[in-house]
Amino acid sequence: MKRIIHFELEEVRAPREAVLDHQGIPEDAEVPHRILALYDDAASQFASLARPRGMIAEISEAEFREVFPGEGNNADDAVVANVFPKADHLALFAATMGGEVSEAIADHFDKNEFALGVMLDAVASMTADRTSEVIADHYHAQLIAEERATPAHHVLGYSPGYCGWHITGQRKLFAYLTPDKIGISLNASCLMNPLKSVSGVLVSGSIDVHVFKAGYSYCPQCRNATCLSRMERLMASERGSA
Ligand code: SF4
Q1: C-alpha to C-alpha distance for 11 and 42, rounded to whole angstroms
Q2: Whose C-alpha lies nearest to ligand 1, atom 2?
Q3: Could you count the other beta carbons within 10 Å of the beta carbon of residue 92?
């Protein structure tokens, strides 16, 4: 069954620290007033333009085995290939901030308002990333309500374009999910339109499903190794609930 979710902005909004960190300003740095004013301007524009919404479609392991290989371009050792067979439940997802935000970013660049354009881009990108986590929480809550998972399970998203899952994998993912219903489409290069959108598979299972050693063939080219901080957070939450 497919489910559409309209998010409250406060539910998905990325914190200011995350947006500034994305721009190379660490949390403990003293931030100049003009940067804070720029952030306030961008955050206010984002609040008036964003239309955050998402879509979830459950998929069986057998069906995902058909979707995941995409067009045959995945790395042989793609992370998801190791993760999904151990999952208890799987769902495809997509979410978007809506087209208005992307148009406003392009408009700022067209008018040579680069600083504001870059800041609005960062607010939208970080909020889209956060939406991947929020939609995973929605799916987890659904599984708990239906007594198919417990709070001790973990639901995490994995996306084409990362960790050995080739970006062209989005075509089969989109064919199954049909996120055009929430206004997301793919162009010939498999970029999503609107640009500030995310997609992937939600994987529900025990912590062991999501913990791995980042030593795959493509890891040396990875710039930020986000898997490491994500696994650290996962293990910290497990320790906290013990
Ligand atoms: S190091 Fe980078 S490419 Fe390797 S698993 Fe982690 S996030 Fe993926």
Answers
A1: 18
A2: 225
A3: 25
Task: Indicate the pTM of the whole model.
Answer: 0.94
Ligand 1 atom index nearest CA of 226 = 7
In this structure, the residue with its CA closest to atom 1 of ligand 1 is: 225
Q: Are 162 and 76 in contact (CB under 8 A)?
A: no
The fold adopted by the segment(s) 2-241 is: NADH Oxidase (3.40.109)
For residue 24, what are its two tokens?
A: 């190379």
| Two structure tokens written together for 126 | 């970080």
Q: pLDDT (tens digit, 9 = 90+) per residue, 60-118?
A: 999 999 999 999 999 999 999 999 999 999 999 999 999 999 999 999 999 999 999 99
Q: Please state the φ and ψ torsions of residue 186, each to the nearest 5 degrees.
A: -115, 140
Could you tell me which residues come within 8 angstroms of residue 189 by beta carbon, excluding any fewer than 6 positions away?
none
Q: Which sequence spans correspond to the domains of the chain?
A: 2-241
Question: Residues near 231 by Cβ (< 8 Å), separated by ≥ 6?
Answer: 210, 211, 212
Question: Which residues have any ligand 1 atom within 6 Å of their CB?
Answer: 79, 162-163, 214, 216, 218-219, 222, 225-227
Whole-number Å distance between alpha carbons of 29 and 20: 10
